[in-house]
Write a structure and sequence with these properties.
This protein is mainly α and 167 residues long. The longest helix is centred in the C-terminal third of the chain and has 18 residues. It has one domain. Helix content is 71%, strand content 0%. The chain is globular.
Length: 167
């Protein structure tokens, strides 16, 4: 089943840059990414690169390589699909409208579940999933920057979006 699932879902090289950054940031420690890059025969910085700390340089490098190296992207995609299989299955069972409501209500304070939900939504190839991901990522950022769960205006926007997909 996972092989069929991997064929119907987006690969990391097919998702937009904001989603790639979010997936890498919540799914990997920079050391794990450095090891994966090294295993793909990439020269990994072990010290600061100019004014950029080595961990940030590694995240940037992993982002660039995920777009440029199909083998690396496929390896990351397979690993993410395995790591977040439960969240992928949870998202696949939802209609797009239900996914929108879920993205508006899910608690964003559990990093492991959050990482899986971000990947499951980012790699979802259904029409509308990309818009929901953007709202979900906005909600996550709002939470992390304000230590809250977003503003009332954000909730209205997500609720309105959910109604659009119920038609």
């Amino acid at each position: 089943m996972l092989e069929d699932q991997a064929q119907t879902r987006k690969s990391i090289h097919e998702i937009d840059c904001l989603a790639v950054d979010a997936v890498l940031a919540v799914s990997f420690d920079w050391r794990e990414l450095a090891n994966r890059l090294s295993a793909s025969h990439k020269k990994v910085p072990h010290t600061n690169v100019g004014n950029v700390p080595a961990p940030l340089a590694i995240y940037r490098m992993a982002h660039a390589v995920s777009h440029a190296d199909f083998g690396f992207a496929q390896s990351l995609t397979r690993m993410l699909n395995l790591r977040y299989q439960a969240q992928i299955q949870e998202v696949e069972k939802m209609s797009v409208g239900s996914l929108c409501r879920f993205a508006n209500q899910v608690k964003v304070d559990k990093p492991q579940k959050l990482a899986g939900l971000i990947w499951a939504t980012a790699s979802d190839s259904r029409p509308g999933a990309e818009k929901i991901l953007r709202y979900f990522l906005h909600r996550c950022l709002t939470h992390f920057f304000s230590s809250g769960f977003g503003s009332e205006g954000e909730t209205q926007t997500l609720a309105e979006l959910a109604h659009l997909f119920e038609r």
